[in-house]
Amino acid sequence: MATLTKTAAPRAYERLENVDVSRITMDIGEPRKGEKRSGTIANVRYGPGDLKILLPSLRLPFGAKLWDANANKVAFALSFNEEDPEEKAAFNKLREIDERILTLAVENRRKLWPKTYTTAKEPKEAEMAKIREDIRAKVGASAEAKSGPDGQSYGVLLNVKIRRNNANPDVLDGVNHKQTGMQPLSVKMVETNEKVVVNMSNVFSILRPGSRMQPVIEASFFFVNAMGSANMVWRLQDNEDNYHIENPLAPQLKDDADENEDEDEDEDEEGEIDE
Prior knowledge:
This protein is of the alpha+beta class. It has helices at residues 85-107, 109-112, 125-138, 203-206; strands at residues 14-15, 24-28, 39-46, 49-50, 52-54, 58-60, 65-66, 74-80, 143-147, 153-162, 173-177, 181-184, 186-189, 194-197, 211-214, 216-225, 230-237, 243-245. A hairpin with a 5-residue loop joins strand 9 and strand 10. Helix 1 crosses helix 3. The longest helix has 23 residues, at 85-107.
């Protein structure tokens, strides 16, 4: 496998292993009702900024794919090999982040689930433990073990979205710079050490089944749908450390599991809370 090289420039993200989960907070908006979707959205913060993390190099068993029939989103799944120490440690750290998100959801339950949790009186310890487990059942984990209809194991998968540009759907959004506005998504190819702009014409060949990537991802927002189910939405971020490693000989899994099975994750950026 090609060697990953790093630079010493300042980073706008945290390495996953260095994330201090106590610094993660939620900024909760008002409940929404509309034709497209209903529910409550909370932006996820890390200190004064956003929660952006650098993952280890992970495999894309299915590659990138269109999110729905309208083709308005692109998504891919990252697979964690629990027999690999680095990947297992990353998975365990994601679990810590999930537990922090669960704690914040419990603390903010009256805003996130206003019809379910109506009393202002603080429950006793035993009641609070039950509330936590009730909410745990509503909140999907960031990464979960999944298998196909034939029982084939797909491993532990983390779903990541790629945002398409509202004005030009052929363009994939990278990061929104304050000075220059939204910039196209790009990745750095390990084999050639070149930076490549990723768009709808090449995304499925660059992020193809069996390839690997060391991505920077952002906790875009936490969404509670009208039925009460909730999940975190993770998005790929533009960064020169988005290394992509071609691995054409890797076995490719048939994507029967529909790893992006929760349509309620499919939120537009317009759904986020304005600062």
